[in-house]
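User: I'm writing a tutorial on reading structure tokens. Could you give me a worked example: one chain, its sequence, then its tokens, then a sentence or two explaining what the tokens reveal?
Assistant: Sure. Here is the example chain.
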Amino acid sequence: MTTARASRADSSVESVGTFISAAPPEQDSENRRVRLGVMGGTFDPIHHGHLVAASEVASVFDLDEVVFVPTGEPWHKSSREVSPAEHRYLMTVIATASNPRFTVSRVDIDRPGPTYTIDTLRDLRESRPEAELFFITGADAMAQILSWKDIQELWSLAHFVGVTRPGHVLENMGRDDVSLLEVPAMAISSTDCRERVADGEPVWYLVPDGVVQYIAKHGLYAAEPQQAEQSAATSEPVA
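And here are its predicted structure tokens:
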């Protein structure tokens, strides 16, 4: 597979993202529809990888807005406990507040039952009929896309953009409505952030400053009391 460098409208500025397959769809400028990026995710917690990926896709695909949509009850993560939706929503609001092109939607949080991408896109299509949707998701989710609910309708609702860390091999399934983009910041993961907090390690500069403070204020991801006591008992005393 040939790797080509993605260029912005200003050809003198080189993008930090790299296309690894499928170019973004082009539109006649006179008939151009509003381009709305949809950044779905658990955001437990949201981190700089999410923000850089959304910003880069917005630049490369000339998006007018990116709406972040925290999942309500993520069906694919039932095997682990997920932080309450309100916490994840508020962290996402804090993280995106400084970017005028970023917004946050409660559409998945306010809908009862498990969250499915098909429902997210249906609701956004209904509320924003004037917009062309670009669904932005991570490499791991993209690899599982064929198992998603109502997959054939998904293809008709949005152009899918899979963001992946450099070196991660991923195919676009041979579809013209799927694009892949390498984003170096995707090496950051929410799992690592949670584990660092549980181990008492800092997450400064991995997540936005306001999110660091929110996590500390609400005691999110802290080790269970029993784990903390065991860790303290086995730690080496400091003179």
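What the tokens reveal: The helical segments are 48-60, 85-96, 117-127, 139-143, 151-157, 190-198, 209-218, 225-234. Confidence is low (pLDDT under 50) at residues 1-16, 225-239.
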